[in-house]
Here is the input.
Amino acid sequence: QVQLVESGGGLVQAGGSLRLSCAASGRTFSSYAMAWYRQPPGKERELVGTMTAGGMTQYADSVKGRFTISREKTYRTVWLQMNNLKPEDTAVYYCSVPRFGYWGQGTQVTVSS
Here is the structure.
């Protein structure tokens, strides 16, 4: 059974940093892109960024230059490094394998001003 499990969320002050992890089990996704999404309170889920199987990354304009996606060599863990956090980054963050529609349960990130 495939599982994606996010961790690393929490409460942080504006300007701080957090690193989210997404651990995949049940299969490897080495040939597929992985993505991070977020859902701010009262808003729709939005794409944060993606990483292709080849390691190329793309980011939403709102996080470009502050967030970085990286991936373990075995492709079983994906990280989202978030720096210079802002209150508007407050959201539940999800990892996903878009090709198969797999989603994690999400991890809450709250940024206080």
